Amino acid sequence: MKGCGNDEGVIKSMYSKPTPREILETLLPHLRMAAAYARQIQPMIATLPSKDEGDNFFAAALTDADVAVQNLVEVVLLGSFPQISFYGEEFELSSNTKYFRSLKLEESGDYLITLDPIDGTQFYKDGHTNYQIILGVLGASEYEAVLAITPALNVYFYAIKGEGTFRGPLEADLEACEPLKVTEYQQSILLGWSMGKLTAALQEHYQVIDVATCYSKEAPMPNLNGILSGDIAGAAIRRGKFIDGAAIAFLAKEAGCIVTTFDGSEPPPLSECSDYSLPGLLVASSKSVHQHLLEAVQWGMGN
């Protein structure tokens, strides 16, 4: 009977609501394996048919790694937290989707776990190093935690709401990571897809990187995660997708950056958003950069 009692304790633990830290600690060892896998197969990656995303070649990119990494995380989540909700970028291709309690963020109740299995798939396909694996823990109003791994650089960032952003080598556990402190930023601004019209208003002060026109298969360029390394001083993105842009913005905010919507206001509660996205976001390393971004958006809307 003693064994039965222990089994009941395990089952109860599996069905109790985990903390954001417990979720990250449980998934981190498996995400390390996913990172090693993605790094190993990058030179020989075989692509799947592109997703239909119009003329946005970044969003249309898809590889075997996207599907395989998501499947790994799904297996771990279903085995560890079977009652949790989960939304992964490749949910339509996954055979595990039907086993999760929900794909949606609810106004109350459990967290929603989100995953971009390979953020920057086009970077990944073209052999660049700044692709990521991004996992988010979302509450009804805002993120509770985010963990973002850059496999090729053997580094990851994580933040738990109100505790700041931390950086560490991939082999380090959460408690061994150090607070992220970026002291210098390049005078560069990243403009996300369809934001190129802001270039004219910003180029007097910054080198402007418009992803739609500056991307090259040969030469690497910063992604939004450049705000965490100082490679960019700010960014404007058309929408903050829960799985990637909004998650990186949360890491930046926890690290001390300014994150607002295009009119300078606080982003709305996550549960009030549609299509798994926040509205357009400005991410800035300082008040002056944020002011320049606000002025550029106001100018752009009037032209």
Can you tag this structure with a few keywords?
Fructose-1,6-Bisphosphatase, Chain A, domain 1, 31% helix, 7-stranded mixed β-sheet, D-Maltodextrin-Binding Protein, domain 2, alpha+beta, 14 strands, 303 residues, globular
Q: Total number of helical segments?
A: 9
Strand count, sense and barrel status of the largest sheet are: 7 strands, mixed
Averaged pLDDT, please? 89
Second CATH tier, the architecture of the largest domain: 2-Layer Sandwich
What would you give as the CATH superfamily of the largest domain?
A: Fructose-1,6-Bisphosphatase, subunit A, domain 1
| Inertia-based shape | globular
| Poorly predicted residue ranges | 5-13, 55-61
* Strand order across the largest sheet: 1-2-3-4-5-6-7
As a whole number of angstroms, the C-alpha radius of gyration is 19 Å
Secondary structure: helix percent: 25-40%
CATH topology call of the largest domain: Fructose-1,6-Bisphosphatase, Chain A, domain 1
Q: Could you say which structural class the secondary elements and strand pairing correspond to?
A: alpha+beta
Strand content: 15-25%
Task: Tell me the name of the CATH class of the largest domain.
Answer: Alpha Beta
Order of helices and strands: HHHHEEHEEEEEEHEHEEHEEEH
Terminal CA distance reads 75 Å
Number of strands: 14
Domain module count: 2
